[in-house]
Amino acid sequence: MMASQAVGIDSTVYHCGKFMNPDPQFDEALTDEELDFLERFLSSNAVCDDAMDVVMLHGFLTAIISGPNMIMPGAILPWIWDARQATRQPRFLSPGRARKVTGLIVQYWNDINNTLNECPDLFEPPLYTTEWKGEEIFIFDEWCEGYCKGIDIDRKAWEPLIELHPSWFNVILLYGTASGYEDLVQRDYTVEQRRSFTNLLKASALNIHRYWCEERRKSMERDERPHMISVVSRPKAAANRQAGRSDLDEQDKDEDLFLVGSLGPSTEDAFNPLELSPLSTRVTRGDTSVDVHIYQSENGSCKGWILEIIDSFGTSTVWEELFPTDSAALAEAVNEIDEHGIGSVMGDVPAHVTKH
Questions:
Q1: Number of domains within the chain
Q2: Are residues 192 and 299 in the same domain?
Q3: Where is 19: in which H helix or E strand?
Q4: Domain co-membership, 199 together with 68
Q5: N or C: which end of the chain has fewer CB within 10 A?
Q6: Number of other CB atoms surrounding residue 193 within 10 Å
Q7: Does residue 338 sit within a domain?
Q8: Is residue 148 within 8 Å of residue 177, measured between CB atoms?
Q9: Longest C-alpha distance within the chain, in Å?
Q10: Is residue 3 part of a domain?
Q11: Same domain, 94 and 212
Q12: How far is CA 229 from the centre of its chain?
């Protein structure tokens, strides 16, 4: 059975804090497999050492969603790939892989937005844990750094609220800024105090979100058009204390599932590099699904359609030959799955295809 048609970022429209897309998948919560895939990509050498991890990304998107103005993907994606400078672009194995990664980010965005607006009681920052003084405590740094990065993109618009309700930002600034970290080091907070920060952080995020939602509602009643930020700005970077990953140039390019040889000229080109066929789709057999991506080759000497299948773990299977039509490529994908089973494009692949 064929699932809903895969649609790229270019078909996505921003509306009321979320991205509306013809594909209902973009409005569903990420599965554990999808979140793991995104986590592995953001920690791979396909991105630079300063890329956000999924916890920092959650804080970042929460601030973007909750803030005073609309922030479009073109202004936020560069900060996800490079949280320090927003200049280093990701390396994608293929157009299909690029669409998958950016699609998961949009899906993550909508998931957070839906939780904040429809079921705020269920909102929980996804925090790492560590042992401190013999007790398990939450690590707030990454999430708060991401939130502060979201504030910095539109800092001037945020300042009135920071001045009006400074207590809402106490924990966020304590763990998310260099000055706050210095203060944290000097103070010897008890285990109980650090644990109490968890509820304070959640309450702060919800209070901030409700405040800006109400302000936006008032603006709409006054028929004021919301301000929209569509291009990247480069605020002063917050201290980034992530560790454990080497810079792109120091990695072995052959060891990473996501890596290709060049970065491409821009983020926009990276996630929408080739024309995707409307026949691109998701194929499901039993409880297993794969994404079938069909896109047109732009090689002047070799006209045709490229067939790529990506499983839920990110394994990419690309046919070596080009197909004369997109329907022929789709027929080949379905025939391969029906004749050899869906596992043939997930693990060991047939001789006539290439596994990356």
A1: 2
A2: no
A3: strand 18-20
A4: yes
A5: N
A6: 11
A7: yes
A8: yes
A9: 68
A10: no
A11: yes
A12: 18
For residue 23, give both structure tokens.
Answer: 């594909």
As a whole number of angstroms, the distance between CA 330 and CA 279 comes to 7
Q: Is residue 92 domain-shared with residue 162, that is, in the same domain?
A: yes
Coil/strand/helix, residue 243: coil
- Rounded-to-integer distance, Cα 102 and Cα 297, Å: 21
CA-to-CA separations, 119 to 10, 19, 123, 333, in angstroms, rounded: 29, 18, 7, 40
Both 159 and 295 in one domain: the answer is no
Select from 204, 224, 253 the last residue of a domain. Answer: 253
Which of 253, 285, 319 is the C-terminal boundary of a domain?
253
Q: pTM for the full model? A: 0.68
Q: Are residues 244 and 329 in the same domain?
A: no
- Each residue's pLDDT, cut to its tens digit, for the chain (356 residues) gives 223 223 333 333 333 444 444 445 556 788 888 898 899 889 888 889 999 999 999 999 999 999 999 887 778 889 999 999 888 888 776 777 787 888 899 899 999 999 999 999 999 999 998 888 788 889 999 999 999 999 999 999 999 999 999 999 999 999 999 888 888 888 878 888 888 899 999 999 999 999 999 998 888 888 777 677 755 555 444 333 333 333 333 333 333 444 433 333 344 444 444 667 888 888 998 888 888 888 877 655 567 888 888 877 667 788 878 889 999 999 999 999 999 888 888 754 444 444 44
> CB neighbours (10 Å) of residue 11?
15
Is the residue at 78 inside a domain? yes
Q: How far apart are CA 193 and CA 171, in angstroms?
A: 11
Residue 244 gets which letter from DSSP? S
Angle among Cα 10, 55, 119 to the nearest 5 degrees reads: 75
Identify each DSSP E strand in 208-351 by its residue range. 228-229, 281-285, 288-296, 305-311, 316-319
Q: CA-to-CA distance for 335 and 325, rounded, in angstroms?
A: 15
293 in the same domain as 175: no
Q: Which two tokens stand for residue 32?
A: 């554990």
Residue 222 is part of which domain span?
11-253
Within a domain: 262: no
